[in-house]
Amino acid sequence: MAKIRSIVTGGAGFIGxxxxxxxxxxxxxxxxxxxxxxxxxxxLQHHKGNPDLRVEQQDINDLTALTxxxxxxxxxxxxxxxxxxxxSIVNPVDYYRANVNGTMCVMEAARLCGVKKVxxxxxxxxxxxxxxxxxxxxxxxxxxxxxxxxxFLGEQTALHWGQVYKIPVTSxxxxxxxxxxxxxxxxxxxxxxxxxxxxxxxxxxxxVGDGSQTRDFTYVTDVADAFWTASESPAHNxxxxxxxxxxxxxxxxxxxxxxxxxxxxxxxxxxNCTYADTAKIKKTxxxxxxxxxxxxxxxxxxxxxxWRQAPVWTPENIAGATxxxxxxxxx
Length: 331
Prior knowledge:
alpha/beta, 12 helices, 13 strands, Rossmann fold
């Protein structure tokens, strides 16, 4: 029986490399398409020599190249994107190009090549500051910054191509993914990368506000499992939340990591809570998370050397990096 041929855009990135792991484990022949703007070849180093993995350095805005790479593919997992709040405010054009136009090129290549199933990595940031928790897929869309908007527009593009061109598309709205291989470089970003570099450097954790805000921290292998489960299901042209089943305070994270704390100002446009209602994905796809928050943090601490080269953020350089955040989002 011929192997299933899968494409993973952004497959050398944090989540994408874990999706690639899962597909190879399931016996797929995988082509990773990544421009390495944020993805790292080292994230796939453990598969070196595997004949079922092909890695192509490529910008997703090059439709001609994508059409060549997608030829003969059965499934597409679209994770390539620019992430983070601050740079999206500073450079919105880059975010539109990558997350909206890039998604259009990916979907058009999928159409031209007859791809049979697409799973899109959407973001729960589209909900902005929700009215209710846990938050359902039918909640209002209130993006607070260009990253959130462009990921939502990418989602709508993927679903529209699915509707018009009869491509089975599933969109997964991911909540606060954490785990091994999260980014170690670049702009000020997610809390885990910031805290782990600070722990290694013996610096205090820079806690926003009073640390009582909660996040639906979802472990990355659970997220990879959601991608796999979605691609195996006949359900399509649907949106599903992917969350942990709980919401955990930043103070609880600090307690698990251990170490001193310093506090920095609360930021505009950030919700006090993120918490996914996962009833739909459980009922329709039969997916549920397996890794507890405590076990996920233990796994990260066991692999903490990965973040040794990450930038170490201080209250002073955070203030500089987030100046545009306060400038444009403060009400």
